[in-house]
Write a structure and sequence with these properties.
By secondary structure, the protein is mainly alpha-helical. Strand 1 and strand 2 form a beta hairpin. The chain has one domain. Helices cover 50% and strands 6% of the residues. The protein is built from 4 helices and 2 strands; from the N terminus they run ββαααα.
Length: 64
Protein backbone atom coordinates (compact mmCIF):
# COMPACT_ATOMS: atom_id res chain seq x y z
CA UNK A 1 0.00 0.00 0.00
CA UNK A 2 1.48 3.39 -0.97
CA UNK A 3 2.31 5.82 1.79
CA UNK A 4 0.18 8.89 2.17
CA UNK A 5 1.82 12.23 1.28
CA UNK A 6 2.37 14.48 4.29
CA UNK A 7 3.98 17.91 4.43
CA UNK A 8 4.73 19.12 7.94
CA UNK A 9 2.02 16.81 9.26
CA UNK A 10 -0.66 18.02 6.84
CA UNK A 11 -2.31 15.84 4.21
CA UNK A 12 -2.44 17.00 0.59
CA UNK A 13 -6.20 17.60 0.78
CA UNK A 14 -5.72 19.86 3.81
CA UNK A 15 -2.98 21.83 2.04
CA UNK A 16 -5.13 22.33 -1.06
CA UNK A 17 -7.92 23.81 1.09
CA UNK A 18 -5.58 26.33 2.77
CA UNK A 19 -5.30 29.90 1.59
CA UNK A 20 -1.86 31.27 0.72
CA UNK A 21 -1.28 32.92 4.11
CA UNK A 22 -2.01 29.69 5.98
CA UNK A 23 0.31 27.75 3.67
CA UNK A 24 3.05 30.36 4.17
CA UNK A 25 3.16 29.43 7.85
CA UNK A 26 4.22 25.88 6.91
CA UNK A 27 7.13 26.73 4.59
CA UNK A 28 10.66 27.90 5.50
CA UNK A 29 11.54 31.59 5.83
CA UNK A 30 12.75 32.20 2.28
CA UNK A 31 9.57 30.83 0.72
CA UNK A 32 7.47 32.68 3.30
CA UNK A 33 9.13 35.99 2.35
CA UNK A 34 8.51 35.28 -1.34
CA UNK A 35 4.83 34.65 -0.68
CA UNK A 36 4.58 37.79 1.46
CA UNK A 37 6.14 39.98 -1.25
CA UNK A 38 3.79 38.62 -3.88
CA UNK A 39 4.08 36.71 -7.11
CA UNK A 40 5.15 38.00 -10.51
CA UNK A 41 2.70 37.86 -13.41
CA UNK A 42 4.46 34.79 -14.83
CA UNK A 43 4.22 33.02 -11.47
CA UNK A 44 0.52 33.87 -11.20
CA UNK A 45 -0.11 32.42 -14.67
CA UNK A 46 1.87 29.30 -13.77
CA UNK A 47 -0.18 28.80 -10.58
CA UNK A 48 -3.45 29.25 -12.48
CA UNK A 49 -2.34 26.62 -14.98
CA UNK A 50 -1.41 24.22 -12.18
CA UNK A 51 -4.79 24.67 -10.53
CA UNK A 52 -6.53 24.10 -13.86
CA UNK A 53 -4.57 20.88 -14.37
CA UNK A 54 -2.75 22.10 -17.46
CA UNK A 55 0.86 21.31 -18.16
CA UNK A 56 3.43 24.07 -18.27
CA UNK A 57 3.97 24.80 -22.00
CA UNK A 58 7.66 25.39 -21.36
CA UNK A 59 8.20 21.95 -19.87
CA UNK A 60 10.23 19.68 -22.11
CA UNK A 61 9.53 15.99 -22.24
CA UNK A 62 12.15 13.46 -23.15
CA UNK A 63 11.16 10.88 -25.73
CA UNK A 64 12.16 7.36 -24.79
Amino acid sequence: MPREFLFRGKKLDEIKKMDVKEFAQLVPARERRKIKRGFTEQEKIFLENLRAGEKDPKTHTVAT
